[in-house]
Specification:
The chain has 401 residues and is α/β, with parallel strands linked by helices.
């Protein structure tokens, strides 16, 4: 038996004026997802508990069958697992984004222009982080490079007495009310300010400005956490698993749960990702003996954060055409029994450009299923069925049942 999860990060949305009152899922041409929903079971699932923030960390753990109330210890420690940082029990970790802030002289009066510094390339980011590692020397803190704008800060014997804000939650807003707070927040704010002084005139940023790109002129620290303790996926569910994703967060979850983590050349966290390569990696994993494959695509989420209406629709269509279609074709021709799940982890509505806790639409199809919803894959149709899973971590048990 083979199991595949098609996870379109942030794919769900609200009705959008720019789309005539429809959602991106309602507008996208996605015959493969619609076929899965029509032949299979369609409903809503709550992947983010009311006690938690609607991050991709919490929501993806939930879809994978790990109750975040039990397993979640923060976002950044999961990314540390991907980067290969060996954490101590006393370490406190943080996500350190390279961001674009506006040019006001007073740091507290700046605006969050771009939480991703124009989707800065990993090559450019590595040079900037390497520069900061040499010049931004703060006792007890270590900085590690990741992918694109996503990096890691580790505080030896650090404190969790902080109040931090994800930068994608404050796009186009002044940072005044969102700077690090709490008893230990001052130390993190000083690192952010120093990083700005070092980065603002760096040659890479001067060149980016010359080319009309957003400069990576500051670190933004958020996503605090401690060393995670995740159970083995194979021991928990009795299946050998493979994680396919471009982002450190999901790779870290894969590493932490003992899954094989595929590296896809040209895979990014946005719409220019190698969709074909992800499908090929999934098929190869299934051929090579993986019983469970989790295909995560970040593109719809990034489009949601940027308010890119047409691009979000296009991202969903590309997932359907280049990933869901080929993988389903392989499963159908393989001669093996299979079951598939289509879902986002959380909605990232274009109207608010950040994550929300609303339930997500899911579709599950098992080979040979006799009765289906007869509906296409949309938020409204998922609600219409009346099927509702209150705890998102139960979704996988529904898939495996």
């Amino acid at each position: 038996m083979k199991y595949v999860v098609f996870l379109g990060d942030g794919m769900a949305d609200f009705p959008c004026d720019a789309l005539g009152g429809k959602t991106p899922l309602e507008c996208a041409f996605k015959p493969n997802m619609d076929a899965i929903a029509g032949k299979g079971s369609l409903g809503l699932a709550k992947t983010v508990d009311d006690q938690l923030s609607p991050g991709s960390d919490v929501a993806n753990l939930s879809v994978l069958g790990y109750d975040p109330l039990q397993y979640y210890s923060g976002r950044s420690p999961l990314e540390a697992l991907s980067i290969g940082v060996d954490l101590k029990e006393t370490d406190v970790t943080f996500r350190a984004n390279l961001v674009t802030l506006s040019n006001e002289g007073d740091y507290s009066q700046k605006t969050m222009v771009d939480y991703s510094a124009g989707e800065i390339s990993t090559h450019e980011a590595l040079e900037l982080i390497t520069y900061l590692q040499k010049e931004l020397v703060v006792p007890g803190f270590s900085l590690y490079s990741g992918i694109s704008y996503r990096h890691l800060l580790v505080w030896d014997e650090g404190s969790l007495a902080v109040k931090l804000t994800p930068p994608h939650d404050i796009s186009k807003k002044k940072v005044t009310d969102y700077l690090p707070g709490g008893e230990a927040g001052c130390a993190l704010l000083e690192i952010m300010k120093k990083s700005h002084m070092l980065l603002v005139n760096h040659p890479i940023n001067q060149e980016r400005i010359r080319l009309g790109k957003n400069p990576a002129n500051s670190l933004w620290i958020w996503g605090e956490g401690t060393k995670p303790a995740l159970d083995s996926f194979e021991k928990k569910f009795g299946l050998s698993g493979c994680m396919i994703s471009a982002v450190d967060l999901l790779k870290g979850i894969g590493n932490g749960t003992g899954m094989k983590v595929a590296n896809v050349k040209g895979a990014t966290g946005n719409i220019d990702t190698n969709f074909d390569g992800k499908a090929e990696a999934a098929i190869e994993a299934l051929k090579s003996g993986s019983e469970f494959v989790y295909i995560h695509v970040e593109a719809p989420d990034e489009c949601g954060h940027q308010g890119q209406v047409e691009m979000k629709v296009k991202a969903i269509e590309l997932i359907d055409e280049k990933i869901v279609g080929p993988v389903m074709k392989y499963l159908e021709e393989s001669g093996e029994d299979y079951a598939v799940l289509v879902a986002p982890d959380h909605p990232t509505p274009l109207a608010v450009m950040t994550h929300v806790k609303d339930p997500i639409p899911f579709a599950i199809y098992k080979e040979g299923q006799k009765e289906g919803s007869g509906l296409s894959y949309t938020e409204a149709h998922a609600k219409e069925t009346g099927i509702y899973i209150d705890k998102g971590c139960e979704l996988i048990r529904m898939l495996l049942a």
